């Protein structure tokens, strides 16, 4: 995908609008409604472009290395999803730098915001990545028999994470008529369950969203925010948080506070990376890759 | 002298140079709030109108100090960055960090002692 095509594509995919949605908002016939076959995609997260601290003095380089490695995959993913905190301080120049790097991805990109992308408001983020039509930024799409949902839980600045009534109502409607054997994949930035509320690693009203998802046979929830891989299962719902491409954070409860963790460079690269996800006939396979 | 004492009291728990607390009447005062270990220190700051408040991020993590009534906003303050603002309006201004909403603070701006009796 060349750069001009990508920039057009970013306008479509911002905040998780599927790349199958055209300018008029109609679904193009990528493979929506097809029988469950197999689909592979890649998750990256927490790039924090603009961060310049000892925990990683060149976050652009580690994001760029991530892009190179994804581009080198022998079978390109159907899409790459970035689960937020693309930038560190929501500055236009940081969004520009991030788009320059992400624009080199061969696969289409789906993006959603983290709290670091909406400091002071959502304008800079939406200017960079566009906004899903008709919603507050959340969206869903179908591909290869899988239903994908992008949630936004960083728009309430006084409580984080929070989905809010409008989004929860939308989610209930989005799921209402779907068959229980439809594989569901949910993206978001802040973990939807109470992973470690003491550090704000939770979504206050996430339980309501999970209640809507609980009736499905297989749900995979992929988040960022905490800069490390932690998996967790509740009923038929499996959660996976992701490594960052920028810097690690301490494991829950192992430090006084969360925040950038300074480690030696060789260890740092083992703590940064991306995740490959394959869904085959409803079964989800997750592989972590580091930059080491 | 009375005024200097009042200003000094307003700066309780702040590392304000002696010279700042002994300025002439109506001279600008200053105060500092630290973002430290994911908290605003001091959590409540009482100042006279006209005081310049500097907010310093001591943490390695970015923070904001965002007024609930939108009267001020540091925007994203990266590690070890500072932000300053002169508070002229009387009132109580609650604020929080957009990135870590459990961080909350209040700045109380009261009438400058030199203004009392002249309004």
Summary of the model, kept short:
The complex is a heterodimer of chains A (292) and B (119). With 292 residues, chain A is of the alpha/beta class.
Secondary-structure map:
The complex is a heterodimer of chains A (292) and B (119).
Chain A: H1 3-13, E1 38-44, H2 59-71, E2 79-82, H3 92-102, E3 109-111, H4 123-129, E4 139-143, E5 146-150, H5 165-176, E6 184-187, H6 206-213, E7 219-223, E8 231-234, E9 237-241, H7 265-270, E10 273-280, E11 283-290
Parallel strand pairs in A: 1-2, 2-3, 5-6, 6-7, 7-9
Antiparallel strand pairs in A: 1-10, 4-5, 8-9, 10-11
Helix pairs in contact in A: 2-3, 5-6
Chain B: H1 2-10, H2 18-21, E1 30-35, E2 40-41, E3 44-48, E4 51-57, E5 66-67, E6 82-87, E7 91-96, E8 104-110
Parallel strand pairs in B: 1-4, 3-8
Antiparallel strand pairs in B: 1-2, 4-6, 5-7, 7-8
Describe the structure.
The complex is a heterodimer of chains A (292) and B (119). Chain A has 292 residues and is of the alpha/beta class. Chain A has one domain (3-290): Metallo-dependent phosphatases (Purple Acid Phosphatase, chain A, domain 2, 4-Layer Sandwich). Chain A is 23% helix and 20% strand. Chain A is built from seven helices and eleven strands. Chain A has helices at 3-13, 59-71, 92-102, 123-129, 165-176, 206-213, 265-270, and strands at 38-44, 79-82, 109-111, 139-143, 146-150, 184-187, 219-223, 231-234, 237-241, 273-280, 283-290. In chain A, strands 4-5-6-7-9-8 form a six-stranded mixed beta sheet, with no helix packed on it. In chain A, strand 8 (231-234) and strand 9 form a beta hairpin. Chain A is globular. Chain B is mainly β and 119 residues long. Helices cover 11% and strands 34% of the residues of chain B. Chain B has a four-stranded mixed beta sheet with strand order 2-1-4-6, with no helix packed on it. A four-stranded mixed beta sheet of chain B has the order 3-8-7-5, with no helix packed on it. Chain B has a single domain, classed as Cupredoxins -  blue copper proteins (Immunoglobulin-like, Sandwich). The chains are: A alpha/beta (292), B mainly beta (119). The A-B interface holds A 51-55, 88-91, 115-116, 119-120, 157-160, 200, 256-260 and B 37-38, 59-62, 64, 66, 68, 73, 75-76, 78-79, 96, 98-102.
């Amino acid at each position: 995908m060349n750069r001009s095509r990508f920039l057009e594509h970013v306008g479509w995919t911002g905040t998780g609008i599927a790349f199958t949605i055209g300018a008029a908002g109609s679904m193009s016939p990528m493979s929506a409604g097809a029988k469950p076959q197999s689909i592979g995609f890649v998750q990256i997260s927490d790039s924090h472009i603009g961060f310049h601290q000892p925990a990683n003095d060149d976050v652009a380089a580690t994001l760029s290395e991530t892009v190179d490695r994804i581009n080198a995959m022998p079978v390109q993913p159907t899409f790459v999803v970035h689960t937020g905190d693309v930038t560190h301080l929501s500055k236009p120049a940081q969004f520009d730098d991030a788009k320059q790097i992400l624009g080199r991805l061969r696969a289409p990109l789906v993006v959603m915001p983290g709290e670091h992308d909406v400091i002071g408001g959502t304008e800079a983020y939406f200017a960079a990545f566009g906004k899903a039509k008709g919603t507050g930024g959340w969206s869903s799409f179908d591909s290869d028999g899988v239903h994908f949902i992008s949630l936004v839980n960083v728009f309430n600045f006084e409580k984080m994470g929070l989905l809010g009534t409008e989004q929860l109502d939308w989610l209930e409607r989005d799921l209402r008529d779907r068959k229980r054997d439809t594989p569901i994949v949910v993206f978001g930035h802040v973990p939807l369950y109470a992973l470690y509320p003491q550090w704000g690693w939770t979504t206050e009203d996430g339980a309501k969203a999970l209640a809507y998802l609980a009736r499905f046979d297989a749900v995979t929830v992929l988040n960022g925010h905490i800069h490390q891989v932690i998996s967790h299962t509740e009923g038929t719902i499996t959660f996976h948080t992701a490594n960052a491409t920028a810097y690690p954070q301490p494991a829950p409860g192992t430090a006084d506070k969360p925040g950038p963790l300074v480690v030696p460079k060789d260890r740092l690269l083992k703590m940064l990376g991306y995740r490959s996800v394959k869904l085959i006939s409803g079964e989800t396979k997750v592989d972590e890759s580091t930059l080491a | 002298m009375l005024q200097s004492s009042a200003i000094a009291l307003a700066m309780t728990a702040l590392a304000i140079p002696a010279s700042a607390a002994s300025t002439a009447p109506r001279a600008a005062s200053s105060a500092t709030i630290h973002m430290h270990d994911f908290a605003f220190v001091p959590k409540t700051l009482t100042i006279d109108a006209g005081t310049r408040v500097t907010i310093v991020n001591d943490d390695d993590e970015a923070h904001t100090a965002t007024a609930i009534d939108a009267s001020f906003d540091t925007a994203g303050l990266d590690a070890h960055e500072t932000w300053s603002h002169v508070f002229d309006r009387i009132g109580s201004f609650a604020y929080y960090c957009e990135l870590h909403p459990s961080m909350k603070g209040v700045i109380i701006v009261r009438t400058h002692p030199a203004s009392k009796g002249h309004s």
